[in-house]
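Moderator note: this is an archived Q&A kept for reference. The question asked for a predicted structure of one protein chain; the sequence and the answer are reproduced below.
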Amino acid sequence: MNIVKVELITYTKDGIRLVAESARVSGVPPGMSDSEIVRMIVENDYQSAIEHISFTFDISEMSIAASREFLEHRISSHTGRSTRYNEEEGFGYYIPREIEGNPEALREFRRAMEAANEAYRRLKDLGVKREGRRYVLPMAMHCRYLWTVNARSLINFLGLRLCVRASPEMRELARKVHGIVNNIYPEIFSGIDCRGRIMGVCPENTVREGFPCPYKKGKLRVPTKEEVKKGKDI
């Protein structure tokens, strides 16, 4: 199946109590429960305290192309599968949506992947070491990362990558990660969606063609930043 895989390896246990206690050090209204404190600081964006919670994921079957976007999230720790030290013959690969639905394009794409695989094998036969052979590997090839991220940085990641303007592969990764962490700590993540929903104003003035935004109209409509700046009646 042409979908990135996400597995939770470990996370901070009893995180709600930990975050609430750290917030009490700063000072919060008396009489609030741990859950109430956490919901308050998330809703009001006083989020330094939730950095005490972290998650480690095993992310696999993500394309090298998507990994370039993934590595832009620098306030986290990434350990990737090395193409210098691992044999990649017979590699798996991601098929973009635009190609997957076009039989002729899909055949051409698969031919390109096999040609890269064959070049990788032939270079091995010619005595080229892995470090040299890896340069024929395509951007579509699957890669793997162990990713450790704190809850505050994860909210930033989700706000960006749950947006319809995110690449489909990154959006799928964000959906899966969100589903996992929301089951563990709904006090933090149940209200997390794209940046527009989190902030109540959308910084994106356009959307990707073929990916309609559910928050552009109707009861859930979120105004754009440009509309707010111009004081437009919404």
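Archived answer notes: The radius of gyration is 21 Å.
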